[in-house]
Every structure is written in structure tokens, then in C-alpha cells.
Amino acid sequence: MFPLRDSQPSGTLPAVTYLIILINVIVFLFEVSLGDHGLEVFLKNFGLVPLLFVQQFGFYEIFTLFSCMFLHGGWMHLVSNMWALFIFGDNIEDKLGHFGFLFFYFACGVTAGLTQVFMSQASAVPTVGASGAIAGVLGGYIICYPSARVLTAIPIFFIIRLIEVPASVYLGFWFISQAFTGIASIAKEPGEEGGIAWWAHIGGFIAGAVLIKTMSFSRQSRSNDFDYIDN
User: Fold this and answer.
1) pLDDT in tens, 151-184
2) Where are the beta strands (DSSP E) in 89-148?
3) CATH number of the domain that residue 150 is part of
4) What is the pLDDT of residues 65-122, one digit of tens each?
5) Fewer CB within 10 Å of terminal CB in the chain, N or C?
6) Rounded to whole angstroms, how far apart are CA atoms 104 and 214?
């Protein structure tokens, strides 16, 4: 299933969402300019490597929790991530405000990275991509807008059907698929997990679902306090 758009309108310009997308695209274009060998070195230096994070824990390893969110392994990796952020990110930014969304995004991304490290401590393969942080956006979306409709493209043999499904169904199915695959990956040896950080997706999604409720309540409380003083 591939999302095309959602039905939930946004009341503000999602400037932070657009800025994050722009930075990711610029960084990826820089990656492309490095060539194969240069890219391999770059990803090892700035990707999140669970084994090194555990063995050499320090400032640089903490830095890679953030830097890895802006790296991607290919065009499809970049496009799929940025498209999901484009569709769902504006509503979460509208809900939390610009600075609140920025904090939310990085908090989900860091939690996703730490989850991946914890579940694959012996892996020397760099983890890269914004998927964990964007999974947090999806987790926040399913809590805030479960009844929103998501126009989805579903390939059936050689025919592509367009179907509108509730966000709770689309995102719930996505999370369950990540969870099943993540659990299945536990039995595999380090280096055999495949090219997707399933546990980062799971950790990010749960973090987003929990954090959105806390931050929304806090923002609403501050708004109520302001209204009371103003009156």
C-alpha cells in the first residue's frame, strides 16, 4: 500500500516539515556526489552503528543518533520517507506548533535509534534514514486523527486500485507489519537482519503515540492558562 494523500486539512504552513525535507534532499545530493567509496565511508562515519555505540559510547556516538536521521541509502529510501513526512507531518506540526514539532521529531528519532541499538547491539551495519523519526509522526497521527481518510494505491497484479481507508486502519496495519517483521528478525544472526531497521520503526512509532498525548495535553494546558489570565 502506498499513501497518496490524507483528508485532514492543516491550518498552518508546515515550515519545519518542509525544512526537514529540504535538508534531507540536500544531504542526499551531497551523498550522491561522493561516489561509491566515499559514500561508504561517509555512512560509516555518520550513520548509527549499534556495535560502536555500545562499545565506544561518547559524544560522537550520541551525535550519530541525530546525524543518521538525515542520511539515506538510495533514491527510493529518500523518496518514500520524505513523501510520508510530507503527507502526515503537516498535521502533527499544526497540532504541536513549529518548535514543538521539531522537538517531537528529534525525540522520536532518538528513541527509534536507541531502540535499534538495544535490539541489535552486535551489529556493525550503519543504521541510516529518517524512518524512525517519521514512524513517530505516524504514531502521533494515529492518535490525533484516527478517523482521517488516507487515499491509498494498492497494486493488484497489473492493476493499481485507489482506495480510501481510515488512518487507524492504514497506520495500524503498517505498525503491525513492522512489529511482526521485527520479532522475526530476533532469531537472525547479526548482519543477517536485512536492510531495514524494523526496531527503529517500532520504537519511533510507540514514542510518537505516547509523546503526542503528553505534548498535546501540555500545550492545551498552557493555552487554557493564557485564556484565563487574559480574561
Assistant:
1) 999 888 778 889 999 999 999 999 999 988 888 7
2) none
3) 1.20.1540.10
4) 999 999 998 999 999 999 999 999 999 999 999 999 999 999 999 999 999 999 988 8
5) C
6) 11
What is the spatial distance between Cα 146 and Cα 111, in angstroms, rounded to a whole number? 23
| DSSP letters spanning 172-212 | HHHHHHHHHHHHHHTTSPTT-S-S--HHHHHHHHHHHHHHH
C-alpha span between 29 and 31 (Å, rounded): 5
E strand or H helix at 73: none
- For cell 494523500, the residue is 5
Length of the chain: 231
- Per mean pLDDT, which range of 23-32, 87-96, 217-226 is the poorest? 217-226
Instruction: Say how many domains are in the chain.
Output: 1
User: In the prediction, which pLDDT does 133 show?
Assistant: 97
For residue 121, what is the DSSP state?
T
With b meaning 16 or more CB within 10 Å and e meaning fewer, what string describes 96-118? beeebbbebbbbbbbbbbbbbbe
Among candidates 138, 142, 72, 71, which has minimal Cα distance to 104? 138
Amino acid occupying residue 105:
Y
Q: What SS3 class is residue 44? A: helix
C-alpha cell at 220: 492545551
Nearest-angstrom CA–CA distance, 123 and 194: 11
Rounded to whole angstroms, how far apart are CA atoms 105 and 99? 10
Structural domain that includes position 145:
2-230
Rg (C-alpha) for the chain, rounded Å, is 18
With H, G, I as helix, E, B as strand and everything else as coil, classify residue 70.
Answer: helix
Q: How far is CA 3 from the centre of its chain?
A: 15
